[in-house]
């Protein structure tokens, strides 16, 4: 999975609070919430919720299908944090041999690998490769077609 667009997060994002009703939404059939709960004055600022360290964060649009089964699809927007120390299990953005990629960091034995979530792509052994970790993926924003 390679990048299509790289955009730094705003270093001091302006507040952008949008309505956020208290009622929790269920993915199943649960009846109707009280209409009074829809307008209780709560708001949500996605910058505040998702961007924990603005000066160390950037956005990236991905292309490809190597991470589909982990919920990262072609065209999704990723929020990456450069300040997080990568650990096994983290999804990373890395420059491997000059190519930007999004993969899960794993150890097999004592050897580090970047692994796809698609079995069509083999794990990338990092031993003896030029690899620069750009950051850890904190969030995925997936838009549905309307």
TrEMBL record:
Residue stretches making up the Peptidase S24/S26A/S26B/S26C domain: 31-137
Domain of life where this protein originates: Bacteria
Biological processes, Gene Ontology terms: DNA repair; regulation of DNA-templated transcription; SOS response
Enzyme Commission number, as recorded: 2.7.7.7
SUPFAM superfamilies assigned to the protein according to its UniProt record, in alphabetical order: LexA/Signal peptidase (SSF51306)
Alphabetical list of InterPro entries matching this protein: LexA-like, LexA/Signal_pep-like_sf, LexA_repressor, Peptidase_S24_LexA, Peptidase_S24_S26A/B/C
Membrane-spanning segments: none
Keywords recorded for this protein, A-Z: Autocatalytic cleavage, DNA damage, DNA repair, Hydrolase, Nucleotidyltransferase, SOS response, Transferase
GO MF term set: DNA binding; DNA-directed DNA polymerase activity; hydrolase activity
Enzymatic class: transferase
Family as reported in the entry's similarity comment: Belongs to the peptidase S24 family.
Protein name: Translesion error-prone DNA polymerase V autoproteolytic subunit
Species of the source: Halomonas alimentaria
Gene: umuD
